[in-house]
Input
Amino acid sequence: MGTAPCEGPAGRERPGCGIRGVVDRYGPAGLRGMAGHPAVRAFLGPRLAGKGDRLLTEASPVAQVTSDDPPHLIIYGDRDPVARYVLSLQYLQALQRAAVPGRLLPFRAGITAGSGRRGGRLAR
Output
């Protein structure tokens, strides 16, 4: 993702231009195996043809982590049938390896992004 500075006039950085933080509210950290999902098809479109899992792996947020990423707050349901919880753990680990501040707030038995049902409680 990166947070390289934005340049203003004469090469000067504009104040407040960069991303200061990310709140990931049960977004899929890994796209592999999700080629049939409507949001993934809309995102990658015809580029999926013939590339399948390789493109999905490369396009996954977990594969895009860099040391200049902003801090992340990851909110995830541990029973999400669409975006698997284990991928949020892998995403947090990738952030930690890159020395990016991150925190995972799991919802126990709740928040299922794909079904539209919400429930559960925030784990402490």
